[in-house]
Design goal:
The structure holds two protein chains of two kinds. By secondary structure, chain A is α/β, with parallel strands linked by helices. Chain A has two domains: 211 residues, Rossmann fold, CATH 3.40.50; 174 residues, Rossmann fold, CATH 3.40.50.2300. Chain A contains 13 helices and 15 strands. In chain A, a hairpin with a 5-residue loop joins strand 14 and strand 15. Chain A is globular. Chain B folds into two domains: 133 residues, Rossmann fold, CATH 3.40.50; 60 residues, Arc Repressor Mutant, subunit A (Orthogonal Bundle), CATH 1.10.10. In chain B, strands 2-1-3-4-5 form a five-stranded parallel beta sheet, covered by helices on one side. The radius of gyration of chain B is 26 Å and the shape is elongated. The chains are: A alpha/beta, B alpha/beta. The interface between A and B is medium-sized, with 13 and 14 residues.
């Protein structure tokens, strides 16, 4: 079923087609981060299908132009250029790794397009030509640190893939850990595409140092290797869990539930979220891509951002960047994770941090969550774990309880 | 250093001196995103309050406001100064150098790069303040050394003792009276001046 969806756009001839709203989609079907990016692609196509099935927008359906940039920043650059120059697209949904977003950024800025970026990242960015729907560090790192410090001892081991997101996430985690009087026993980096030996080396160092908790920002294919080797070594998540921001349902499925069981992830969304909107989302996702396919936070953001785009487009009736952006900023949506909003000032999104622990089915049991959404603050240097960060903001009131159930 | 500077950005009072237009609005919004407190003014104010930590000011071709004394590096502590330029020509850049700005940004304004410029400007400002303090301290030290030297030679001349003895005398007396060596030396120099005046009046 997925295959049919993927094939239709790129080979189409380039015409000014007034029967469609044409948009670009850039998620990798191959390469190091394809496991997670394929779920983002699926969710994007699912949302588009829902919108089209409901009659499209002002009678016209959305037509995605899909390319596979192979987890390669250079290909992201080339395909984003092709999207804006040849396909005449100004809306692009895509990107997972920061390096790929940075590659697309100058293109959307030069052509005044709009990139919808559905992935958590390290913050410190604002572009008038990007809308960020994944978590900023103040929306997940702080909450995770707080949980780990409360639940698991004093000694933290930080390990990550060798690129910008892990560096910055580890800097933040180290700050939080040390300011709470806990210690970081090591901070290690492995290549983005690690060998068996790279993992073995880190694991033997972990065995030697015996931390209370491992904070992992290993992304992509290294994730499976790392968790598998941990498991094979007979280590116990109850005593020394791996805590992550990026190990979602997709990575868990990739490595196997028994391998991942007991480990912890902080995220604004898990498939297990109990809302009406999420039941609907998961049901449709399963129907379209198979019951064995899980949703995850990046997938959810990819899904709701298309709907937010559609709402904006419906409101203004034309797909030019200024109009759609103006309508999207400040708009609300009943996302699967709860009601969310795009911040008018920084283009990031109000989200609902949660802590999940992998159960034997390979899903996350939600073991901790905030009682209000958290405002995105991508330029916040000093994250704090104290109460105020998670206090209810006054400018927000529930407008509709129906789709968001408290847990 | 960078982390320390980034941390203090949230407490900075930033003044933007720029005509009221779209550019100023873009700049203001991004500085607020970063988390500083922003106020705006135009035309250039006669003075700025002591609470102003950082000034962005438009150094525009059509608004020649370059020589504002309150911006100059006069040896007193001044706010961090970032110039906003609309041309990169020698005239403008010379003016920026004359003032000794801590950083320069250009219009049309882009969010990306502003944080880097803020950090560099604050780093330069911190260095400037540190250097000024150091210079002040060194100047004081030189004055003190000069004064003690004078006192030593006065004592030597009057009492026919050598430098070592003279210095010991100053040190001991200062200790007894619980004042610094420099202050006591100062007294000797002052007393000598007074006596010289008396003497020269008598002689006249």
């Amino acid at each position: 079923m997925t295959r049919d969806l993927y094939k239709f756009a790129p080979k189409r001839k380039l015409t000014m087609d007034n029967n469609f709203w044409k948009v670009g989609v850039l998620f990798s079907k191959t390469g190091v981060t394809s496991v997670i990016e394929k779920t983002q692609l699926n969710a994007t196509l699912l949302a588009i299908r829902e919108i089209n099935a409901a009659g499209g927008i002002h009678g016209r359906s959305i037509r995605p132009v899909v390319y596979d940039p192979e987890s390669d920043p250079e290909k992201f650059y080339i395909y984003s250029k092709r999207l804006v120059e040849k396909d005449r697209v100004n809306m692009i949904f895509g990107c997972y790794m920061s390096s790929t977003r940075k590659a697309v950024l100058p293109v959307v800025e030069n052509f005044n397009g709009l990139l919808w970026y559905p992935t958590l990242y390290e913050g410190y960015e604002f572009s008038n030509n990007v809308i960020y729907t994944g978590a900023a560090p103040n929306q997940n790192s702080a909450f995770l640190a707080q949980h780990l410090i409360n639940q698991f001892g004093r000694r933290f081991y930080l390990v990550g893939s060798n690129y910008i997101y892990p560096y910055e996430s580890n800097r933040i985690m180290r700050d939080l850990v040390e300011s709470a009087g806990r210690s970081v026993v090591a901070e290690k980096y492995i290549p983005l595409n690690p060998s068996d030996d790279d993992i073995t080396l880190v694991l033997s160092d972990i065995l030697e140092k015996r931390p209370d908790v491992i904070f992992s920002t290993i992304v992509g294919s290294g994730t499976r290797l790392f968790y598998r080797k941990y498991w094979a070594a007979g280590l116990q998540p109850k005593q020394m869990p791996i805590a992550s921001l990026t190990t979602s349902e997709a990575e868990v499925a990739d490595m196997g539930a028994e391998v991942a069981r007991g480990h912890i992830t902080a995220s604004p969304y898990f498939q297990a979220v109990d809302t009406v909107a999420n039941q609907r989302f998961v049901h449709k996702y399963h129907a379209m891509f198979g019951a064995d396919q899980s949703t995850n936070a990046c997938c959810e953001a990819a899904y709701f951002q298309v709907h937010m785009f559609a709402d904006a487009l419906r409101k203004v009736g034309k797909i030019n960047t200024e109009s759609v952006r103006a309508a999207a900023l400040g708009s609300f949506y009943n996302a699967p994770q709860g009601k969310i909003q795009i911040d008018v000032d920084n283009h990031h999104t109000y989200l609902w941090p949660k802590i999940g622990r992998v159960n034997k089915e390979g899903q996350f049991d939600i073991i901790d969550q905030v009682d209000t959404w958290v405002k995105p603050d991508p330029y916040l240097v000093n994250l704090q774990m104290t109460e105020p960060l998670f206090k209810a903001s006054n400018d927000y009131q529930y407008e509709d309880h129906s789709s968001h159930t408290r847990h | 250093m960078a982390i320390k500077i980034l941390q203090e950005l949230r407490n900075l009072n930033v003044l933007i001196v720029h005509p009221d237009d779209r550019q100023r609005n873009e700049l203001k919004k991004h500085i607020e995103r970063i988390g500083c407190n922003v106020t705006m003014q135009w035309p250039f104010p006669k003075f700025v309050t002591a609470q102003t930590d950082l000034i962005f000011f438009a150094m525009m071709q059509e608004h020649p406001l370059f020589e504002k004394p309150l911006l100059l590096n006069s040896g007193e502590t001044r706010p961090t100064i970032i110039a906003i330029v609309d041309y990169e020509n020698p005239t403008i850049l010379q003016s920026a150098c004359d003032i000794g700005v801590h950083a320069i940004i250009s219009t049309p304004f882009k969010p990306f790069g502003l944080l880097a410029n803020l950090v560099v400007a604050r780093m330069h400002w911190h260095q400037e303040v540190m250097q000024q303090n150091r210079i002040r301290k060194l100047e004081k030290k030189v004055r003190n050394i000069h004064c003690v030297e004078q006192a030593i030679s006065i004592l030597g001349r009057k009492n026919e003792i050598d430098r070592q003895e003279a210095y010991e005398f100053i040190r001991r007396q200062a200790m007894n009276r619980r004042i610094s060596t420099e202050d006591f030396a100062q007294e000797i120099v002052q007393a000598d001046k007074t006596l010289n005046i008396t003497r020269s009046e008598k002689g006249a």
